[in-house]
Design a protein that fits this description.
This is AMP-binding protein. Keywords: Fatty acid metabolism, Ligase, Lipid metabolism. Pfam families: AMP-binding, AMP-binding_C. This protein is α/β, with parallel strands linked by helices and 559 residues long. It is 30% helix and 26% strand. The strands form five sheets. A nine-stranded mixed β-sheet has the order 2-1-11-10-12-13-14-15-16, sandwiched between helices. It is globular, with a radius of gyration of 24 Å.
């Protein structure tokens, strides 16, 4: 047997940790004068920044953070819309040795404070848009260093220790930064709600971030210097790793503070946008946008959609505009998309309805993902590839999270038997493509955001009049899904829907507040378990007609 090991070990010359920090270093060296960032809202903000300038500012951000005391594995939280500061944070924070925690900008104050506390954040960079939360955060976390990211579009009173630009200007060293010594080092922390409603801190490593960024390129056949529009929130799975993807391709980040169909269409035409990612609702908004703005787009645009698959109507509208839409699938725990509905040449010959059916599947594993399978429940045995036998979707590979922060038990459960169990149920077709059929977790996906039914139920149970409740999803043309609450009150109690809604608004972010409150007897099994499948059937009718329910309305009780 030939010895391929002795004297052939790893050393600095032949082995370097993978990290997306290398991507910005290369782009700044090779394409220093190419545009890296455009921030153009057609009104207040008109910023263009090169890769050399962006690389310099990221190093300044690193130095500024280190001067504030940030060291290896310290958490730097950011609460920012898709602005240039968010792009720079994707590099500047890990270059400081810190771990980037991108906070969902739609969080209510309770969830926000939990994430800040659980992450042990030492610095929080907040946009002017969230000035109303700054005082509460400052009072709750007196030792937290708050940085105010200002914007010409929003005029608010200054808050925090300093502004973001003052933090950048505080730097006097461009060499005060580092790359990881170990590619397993944490690069970011993302919070996601589980079935208990308690946010889980998902930890990413440098290796996975770099590989997912490159996998995005391969999955999309992305050419050099693409022009990418930030319709996807960068707080969500670090923007599916696209800040690092665009840096690797020396592309252009076209920043977008808010989702506005007319603005999106105008920016696509003006800046010749080539790629964008978004939830189904955003694609629908674009498809139904101003005809004049749509007609001004004369080039092909590629879009990724995750969540609900592209509908026949949306696909037809997009194709008529010259847009090519692909369906992808992923979770926070896997850095964003790790499967893609890879299209076959013969699909081009199908009509729109048949093509939409093909594209409704979650597809096959991404290029740099090792495994994507549908396993029989409680087993590592795959289901039959017949499109009928249902099992749990499971993933494995280098683009799986390190684990859940401060939750060893949840981490071990997630990685049982050498697979990451997604909690989604699906089937596998004879051609190897996989399709999700249902969710093990009762997660409601509304506007691309995950909403925990249990979290809402816990809020409802705070009302003394409520004896039992259950929250399920109802399909919705605009949002994909909306939460619907079935409420059973104690005998003799009185409760009005407006009172329930007001209570929910006091404790939940707006997108989590149930859109329908149905007073009903909750169907249960003999053991007292709520039969949510019956409630889901009842909720589906809400998508097709205006519900006519009264406080005494009921749904059938299980035998």
């Amino acid at each position: 047997m030939t010895d391929f090991h002795t004297g052939l070990g790893k050393n600095p010359a032949n082995h370097q940790p993978l990290t997306p920090i290398d991507f910005i270093i290369r782009s700044a060296a090779v394409y220093p004068q190419q545009t890296a960032i455009i921030y153009d809202d057609l009104e207040h903000n008109q910023l263009t920044q090169t890769w050399d300038e962006t690389y310099t500012r990221c190093r300044q951000l690193s130095d500024g953070l280190r001067k504030l005391g940030i060291d290896k594995n310290d958490t730097v939280a950011v609460m920012l819309p898709n602005t240039p500061a968010m792009v720079e944070s994707a590099f500047g924070v890990p270059m400081s040795g810190g771990v980037l925690c991108t906070l969902n900008t739609r969080l209510d104050i309770n969830a926000l404070t939990f994430c800040v506390q659980h992450s042990e954040a030492k610095v929080l960079i907040m946009d002017s848009e969230f000035a109303d939360l700054a005082e509460i955060i400052d009072e709750t976390f007196p030792n937290l260093i708050v940085i105010h990211a200002t914007d010409d579009a929003i005029d608010v009173e200054r808050f925090g220790k300093m502004t973001y630009e003052e933090l950048i200007a505080s730097s006097d060293r461009l060499d005060n930064w580092e790359k990881p010594l170990d590619e397993w080092d944490a690069i970011s922390l993302n919070y996601t709600s589980g079935t208990t409603g308690t946010p889980k801190g998902v930890v990413y490593h440098h290796r996975g971030a770099a590989l997912n960024a490159v996998s995005n390129i391969l999955d999309w056949d992305m050419p050099k210097q693409p022009v990418y529009l930030w319709t996807l929130p960068m707080f969500h799975c670090n923007g599916w790793c696209f800040p690092w993807t665009i840096a690797e391709r020396a592309g252009v980040n076209v920043c977008l503070r808010k989702i506005d169909a007319d603005l999106i269409l105008q920016l696509i035409a003006k800046h010749k946008i080539t790629h964008y990612c978004a939830a189904p609702i955003v694609h629908n908004m674009i498809a139904g946008g101003n005809a004049e703005y749509k007609n001004a787009i004369e080039h092909q645009v590629k879009g990724w959609v995750a969540g609900a698959p592209p509908s026949e109507a949306m696909l037809a509208q997009m194709e008529s505009m010259g847009f090519h839409i692909s369906h992808v699938y992923g979770l926070t725990e896997v850095y964003g998309p790790v499967t893609v509905c890879a299209e076959q040449p013969e699909w081009d010959e199908l009509d729109v309805a048949e093509r939409a059916q093909k594209k409704s599947r979650q597809g096959v594993r991404s290029h740099l993902m090792t495994g994507f399978e549908v396993l029989k429940q409680g087993s590592t045995e795959p289901v039959a590839a017949d499109g009928e036998e249902m099992g749990e979707l499971a993933l494995r590979g280098n683009m799986i999270m390190k684990g859940y922060l401060k939750s060893r038990k949840s981490t071990e459960e997630a990685f049982a038997d050498g697979w990451f169990r997604t909690g989604d149920l699906g089937v596998k077709y004879p051609d190897g493509y996989i399709k999700i059929m249902d969710r093990l977790k009762d997660i409601i996906i509304s506007g691309g955001e995950n909403v925990s039914s249990i979290e809402i139920e816990n809020v409802l149970y705070k009302m003394p009049e409520i004896q039992s409740c259950a929250v399920v999803a109802a399909p919705h043309d605009k949002w994909g899904e909306i939460p619907v609450a079935f409420v059973e009150i104690h005998p003799g109690s009185t409760l009005q829907r407006d009172t329930v809604t007001k209570h929910c608004k006091q404790h939940l972010a707006g997108f989590k507040v149930p859109k329908y409150i149905i007073f009903a007897e909750i169907p249960k099994t003999s053991t007292g378990k709520v039969q949510k499948f019956e409630l889901r059937q009842a909720a589906k009718s809400l998508a097709h007609e205006t519900p006519k329910v009264s406080p005494s309305a009921t749904v059938p009780t299980a035998e």
